[in-house]
Design goal:
heterotrimer, A alpha/beta (123), B mainly alpha (360), C alpha/beta (484), A: alpha/beta, 5 helices, 5 strands, 20% strand, globular, C: 484 residues, alpha/beta, 10-stranded mixed sheet, two-stranded antiparallel ribbon, 16 helices, 12 strands
């Protein structure tokens, strides 16, 4: 069965680029949304192996999304956060909430793809 | 009584006055309403233009970016995208600005190949001339915007053009020029030599953001500015010493401690740098100083670096009249595990406060 | 000419003079506000959000929210407060002796545990019973203070005592903050070290879509009363306060959202608990304190719509609110009478205070007197209709002018009500306002002033409601001496 990946990124160009890169590397079935509200709805109806999310999104932030995912017992879902702020406090908070990996913007899509591959293999 | 007759006369000054004010107000109402309508129309036109071009701009830039990171198997023609962007760039200055904004945004998001590609697009679309044209504008905001664009696109050859804006009358423009120089000039903080005004906290933060993206050997020697005439510049450089972990500057900081007015700032910096060398100086200073802020900084420093021998210091300051000093003294004792008889209710409560892990 | 004629002439000229100065003041203010907004919007376009949210150098901020019987919504509200886009802040919720299950709900939802926080009561408040922090590290920003009931001002003071941040943001617990609220509010403090307080704009949230304490969609209220208030709030913030902030004469920072320098609030003695206008009173007191100390200072305002709050949509609640505002204004003015045309206090004394005295406090009373006078003339049958009608037209034009300027200011700045329909609705509200809405405002404020005249009773009631036994005795003594 193909693994499902959700990309939440409010910047369309970046979102589509991540989607394309991951699809190209054949990592799974990739869906993308551009705000936290849609992301939440998508998570409620689908079962994703991996969620990649920006922190600052309209309506619901990436951290809230993460908290929501962890609160609803989806323990096996991997969660990667992409963020423009690599502040220690934010990173710590994200790991406290149970994030699997944390990438700081600017980032390279190649690196992201490698990390995703490793995570999915480990799972 | 306001008689009826009175108002039948034409020259009643009150009526003329009321009439005049009403006419002026009506004129102003019409003026503002038409301004609203004009602004609405131009907004609608903008929106239409945006709806027409925006998706294409995004799509083409996305394809260019994707192409740069996916090495093989993408049959996409960079030149075709470029030709398209070039075409719409020429339509109007507004569209050119949109393209530029999007390029800047993507460049900030990405590193590696994709980042370089965005720079290439900027160069190939010749958007640099647009940014350079802004520097010639009479509007300070436009100039600042131009500096910002050149700075984000790392156009290192133009930094010398920024110097003349350092003396501008506009605060924002002066700041933009200084930030531009921080990013682009080979010697990032060179503008500090001629700084005559206070560096606001906002600007300090912005400079730090720019320095962060630099390699360590591009960073200046911060100790050069420890004796700057502007206290804010000194504070900034001391803070930078800490933020970039310049342990080798500890001796200079200790030297600064002897002369500076703002001792607590320097001691805080020494604490962050774990400068045990400063221990004797701090122990001496804490008894000499009568500035509560300095004493608190010293106590915090000792809490971090001191040892059992600080007991006498603790005993001196626990009686201090300033609440914060007492609080810091107990904090130090708690941190250094100095045991003492809690003689008062306040002391007991403070100790509990400091021993609790949830209160940070 | 008998005395009667002379008297009416005096009244006539007084009314004219008053309206002329009002018009001139507002014309001047709208000019100032226009340039201030334009400048702000230009500067805003140069601002990059990432600059501050990714910086460890951002100053620390405490959000202080007093809560009284908020059990229904408190958990949602706290969650929303914890998720703002700012990296160096904490949230202090002060439970002001709620009689419902506010505290229990919060303890359960956030996994709280009592901690022995040592509070230095720099401003004396009602006793703090306990302080709670979360055991869950992801809520470590949260502190709950549980104290004996003492009213909003007292709760805010307790929160300020507990805080150790450089800045404190005093907010209403039930208002919805935009995600970028703190970053925008902090900016003036970072740009200029002489800023002592900064106010935020409050907008009306009725009929807006709100989910999990976050604003999703902005709508114009369907309720007419709330819609008039949208216009009124826009006018107050975009025209009046923006201009006052530019002139550095701002006297009022709305209690719903304001950011202050914590050390200066403490130095000024915190919020005063003996007035219902505590938000304005604090700013006025801080201003006069700074002037007396001979220090340069600035009170600024950020025109971005950052805070959304539910406005009263029924007549009864509305009247109660306005009644309170009128009393608050009076109390503040009365407490600081020394400012009246006092050149020592520069713009505060020469311009700010008199403006509030004449045009905010006295204007509704005068309008009311005017209406009474008119009815009196009607009965005596000596109304000069031309004069009356032309006066009416002038005032009407004045009101429409102010509203159209406000709509224009909103148009060039934040443009929250999109769509031609909403714009036309707002315009219609502006046209109807002088007949339908304005009389209610005037009436409520007259009633407020009548309550002041009843005086001692209402004042005593207020203090009695929230003081513990020991202070109550002292307060009661005070009341009796005053009534004697």
């Amino acid at each position: 069965m193909e693994k499902k990946i959700l990309v939440c990124e409010d910047d369309e160009v970046l979102g589509s680029m991540i989607k394309f890169k991951l699809g190209k590397d054949q990592l799974g079935l990739i869906e993308s949304v551009n705000n936290g509200k849609d992301a939440k709805e998508a998570i409620e109806t689908n079962d994703y192996s991996l969620i990649i999310s920006d922190i600052h999104m309209p309506f619901i932030s990436g951290l809230q999304l993460l908290e929501h995912v962890r609160a609803h017992q989806k323990k096996n879902t991997s969660f990667i956060i992409l963020s423009a702020e690599g502040l220690e406090s934010t990173v710590l908070e994200a790991f406290d909430l149970g994030v699997t990996d944390f990438l700081t913007k600017p980032f390279s899509p190649g690196e992201l793809s490698m990390r995703v591959k490793r995570l999915l293999q480990a799972a | 009584m306001i008689s009826r007759l009175q108002f039948l006369e034409d020259q009643d000054p009150k009526m003329i006055f009321i009439f005049g004010v009403t006419v002026v107000l009506t004129g102003l109402i019409i003026f503002f309403l038409s301004l609203i309508i004009i602004s609405k129309i131009s907004r609608t036109r903008d929106r239409r233009l945006k709806r027409k071009y925006w998706p294409y701009i995004k799509e083409h830039l996305a394809m260019i970016a994707i192409q740069s990171v996916v090495n093989e198997g993408v049959k996409y023609d960079y030149r075709r995208s470029l030709r398209f962007l070039m075409q719409i760039r020429n339509r109007s200055r507004k569209i050119a600005q949109w393209v530029l904004d999007e390029i800047m945004k993507q460049k900030a998001n990405l590193t590696g190949e994709a980042n370089k590609t965005m720079l290439k697009v900027y160069r190939d679309l010749n958007l640099k001339t647009y940014s350079l044209r802004k520097l010639k504008s009479f509007n300070s905001n436009t100039v600042a915007r131009g500096i910002y664009e050149l700075e984000s696109m790392e156009q290192r050859d133009v930094f010398s053009k920024f110097y003349k804006f350092l003396g501008s009358k506009n605060t924002d423009l002066r700041m933009a020029a200084r930030l531009g120089l921080t990013s682009l000039a080979p010697n990032p903080l060179s503008f500090l030599d001629h700084l005559k005004e206070e560096l606001s906290e906002w600007e300090q933060m912005s400079i730090y953001n720019r320095l962060r993206s630099k390699h360590k050997d591009q960073l200046p020697d911060f100790s050069k500015f420890y004796y700057h005439e502007q206290p804010s510049a000194v504070a900034f450089c001391v803070e930078m010493t800490v933020r970039f972990n310049y342990f080798e500057l500890i001796p200079q900081l200790i030297e600064l401690l002897k002369t500076t007015k703002n001792r607590s700032m320097v001691i805080d910096a020494l604490k962050e740098l774990e400068a045990f060398q400063a221990l004797p100086y701090v122990k001496r200073l804490i008894h000499k100083s009568n500035n509560p802020q300095t004493i608190i900084s010293c106590l915090n420093f000792l809490a971090h670096i001191g040892d059992e021998s600080c007991r006498s210091i603790f005993e001196t300051f626990i009686e201090h009249k300033n609440f914060e000093v007492r609080m810091a003294a107990v904090g130090m004792a708690a941190k250094l595990n100095i045991e003492f008889e809690s003689s008062s209710e306040e002391l007991e409560s403070m100790l509990l406060h400091h021993q609790n892990e949830l209160i940070s | 000419m008998n005395i009667w004629t002379i008297l009416t002439h005096i009244v006539d000229f007084f009314v004219l003079g008053f309206s002329v100065s009002l018009t001139i003041c507002y014309l001047f203010l709208s000019c100032v506000s226009f340039f201030a907004i334009r400048k702000y919007m230009r500067r805003r376009s140069l601002y990059r959000v990432n600059d501050i949210i990714s910086s460890p150098m951002a100053p620390s901020v405490s959000l202080i929210a007093p809560a009284y019987n908020e059990g229904m919504t408190i958990v949602e509200n706290i969650r929303s407060m914890l998720s703002l886009e700012y990296n160096n802040y904490d949230v202090i919720v002060v439970n002001d002796g709620s009689k419902d299950d506010t505290l229990e709900k919060v303890i359960k939802a956030f996994d709280l545990i009592q901690v022995p926080l040592h509070v230095n009561a720099k401003v004396s408040t009602q006793e703090i019973v306990s302080v709670y922090k979360s055991q869950n590290r992801s809520f470590k920003k949260l502190t709950i203070v549980n104290k004996v009931n003492g009213g909003k001002a007292d709760a805010l003071n307790a929160g300020i005592n507990v805080s150790s941040s450089r800045l404190v943001a005093c907010i209403d617990v039930d208002c919805v903050l935009e995600n970028d609220a703190l970053q925008r509010m902090v900016k003036p403090f970072m740009e200029d070290s002489s800023v002592i307080a900064s106010g935020g704009v409050v907008r009306i949230a009725n009929s807006c879509e709100i989910e999990h304490g976050k604003l999703i969609n902005v709508n114009l209220p369907k309720n007419m009363l709330a819609r008039f208030q949208v216009l009124e709030y826009l006018r107050a913030f975009l025209l009046s306060r923006m201009a006052w902030a530019r002139l550095n004469g701002l006297l009022l920072i709305s209690g719903a959202f304001g950011l202050f320098d914590r050390k200066l609030i403490l130095k000024a003695g915190g919020y005063s608990t003996d007035t219902v206008g505590e938000d304005m009173e604090l700013v006025v007191r801080m201003r006069s304190m700074m002037t007396r100390a001979g220090k340069k200072f600035r009170v600024t305002m950020i025109p971005d719509p950052l805070c959304w709050t539910e406005a009263p949509s029924t007549n009864k609640v509305f009247e109660k609110q306005r009644n309170r505002w009128a009393r608050g204004t009076y109390e503040v003015l009365q407490k600081h009478t020394y400012l009246f045309f006092n050149s020592k206090y520069k713009i505060t004394g020469l311009f700010g205070y008199p403006f509030w005295f004449f045009f905010e406090w006295m204007a509704p009373l005068l309008e009311f007197c005017g209406a009474v006078y008119f009815i009196f003339l009607l009965f005596t049958g000596s109304v000069s209709w031309t004069y009356f009608l032309s006066l009416l037209v002038m005032f009407y034009c004045f009101s429409i002018f102010i509203s159209s300027f406000t709509l224009y200011a909103e148009e060039i700045s934040f443009y929250k009500y999109k769509g031609v329909k909403d714009q036309l609705r707002l315009l219609a509200a502006a046209l109807l306002e002088p007949f339908i809405y304005h009389p209610r405002v005037v009436w409520a404020s007259v009633k407020g002033n009548i309550d002041i005249l009843k005086g001692v009773k209402s004042w005593g009631e207020m203090t009695r409601s929230g003081f513990s036994s020991k202070t109550k005795v002292a307060e009661l003594k005070k009341v009796t001496t005053i009534s004697n």
